[in-house]
């Protein structure tokens, strides 16, 4: 158990066994079993939420990010920060990622009736890229659901950008050829964000919410956001800032030239019924 833990923490570490490590392992095994059951039962207990993204210039709805939720009778709702890594370590992210993609496209198609410019952002894990059927599945799903690909943004995290560059180039090219956009998620948290951006350019960069937390006191964070916006705009990349929660934060970033904002200030992730009620109820389909 201690060895597993050391490996999970990035190897070359000394970890002493303690009781809580074994409790952690037991919980992980239980959750793994329950995740497998959910998948086998037609993705029971999974739900797709959506968080609004707005234009920084006027606060109007631009689209949303599809965010996976999972709950079990025994444990209640479990954070994606806990269950996504389990799905990735067991490869179960491959079927679940497909379910997410299909569901997000179905929802997006429906909402295009109320908001013809709606953009749906979908998270894709780097593990899904190693699945040789990934692109084929994407193509078939787009065709079956019959949705214009210009409304789909695929989000990858930096961890994915550090894997096999040749493979990444070829998958990204195919995604673009299909007409979808690529966003680099959690920008600024990885080891070499700028290098990756140079080598595998994205259409949209999403600056991580860590840069907003101390924005009122941190000159570095403010300068970083401004710098990323300037750099990206020079090379035709749009910039979204994540994690804006308060009016004070919005005030500070409002002069920075950002393209989009996603944060609790404009809306938390909502289930599809609530998202519809909040944003589309009063629009005519
Ligand atoms: P992410 O892709 O960076 O998604 C944004 C996360 O930030 C979401 O957490 C969202 O609820 C949270 N967030 C948004 N605005 C604010 C804010 O103003 N303040 C704070 N404190 N948080 C904010 P969530 O839904 O818990 O998801 C966590 C992560 O799990 C995601 O981070 C993503 O990496 C992963 N994830 C979620 N759904 C999927 C999925 O369908 N597929 C894959 N591969 N990963 C997913
Ligand atoms: Ca994301
Ligand atoms: Ca993010």
DSSP, total strands: 9
Bound molecules: ligand C2E, calcium ion
Identify the strand order in the major beta sheet. 1-2-4-5-6-7-8-9
> Averaged pLDDT, please?
94
Instruction: Describe the largest sheet.
Output: 8 strands, mixed, barrel
Number of helices: 13
Outline:
globular
Q: Radius of gyration, rounded?
A: 20 Å
Give the proportion of residues in helices: 40-55%
Describe the oligomeric state of these chains in a short phrase: single chain
Give the distance, in angstroms, between the N- and C-terminal Cα atoms.
55 Å
Structural class, by secondary structure, is: alpha/beta
> What series of H and E elements makes up the topology?
HHEEEHHEHHEHHEHEHHEHEH
Share of β-strand residues: 15-25%
pLDDT < 50 stretches: none
Describe it for me?
Helix content is 47%, strand content 19%. By secondary structure, the protein is an alpha/beta fold. The chain has an 8-stranded mixed beta barrel, surrounded by 4 helices. The radius of gyration is 20 Å and the shape is globular. The protein starts with a helix and ends in a 6-residue tail after the last helix. The mean pLDDT is 94. The structure holds ligand C2E and calcium ion (2 copies). Residues 65, 123, 155, 185 line the site of one calcium ion.
Which terms would index this structure?
eight-stranded mixed barrel, binds calcium ion, alpha/beta, globular, 285 residues
What's the helix and strand layout?
Blueprint: H1 2-8, H2 19-40, E1 46-55, E2 61-72, E3 76-78, H3 80-89, H4 93-111, E4 119-123, H5 126-129, H6 134-145, E5 152-157, H7 158-161, H8 165-177, E6 181-187, H9 193-199, E7 204-207, H10 210-213, H11 219-234, E8 238-242, H12 247-253, E9 260-262, H13 272-279
Parallel strand pairs: 2-4, 4-5, 5-6, 6-7, 7-8, 8-9
Antiparallel strand pairs: 1-2, 1-9, 2-3
Helix pairs in contact: 4-6
The structure holds ligand C2E and calcium ion (2 copies).
One calcium ion is lined by residues 65, 123, 155, 185.
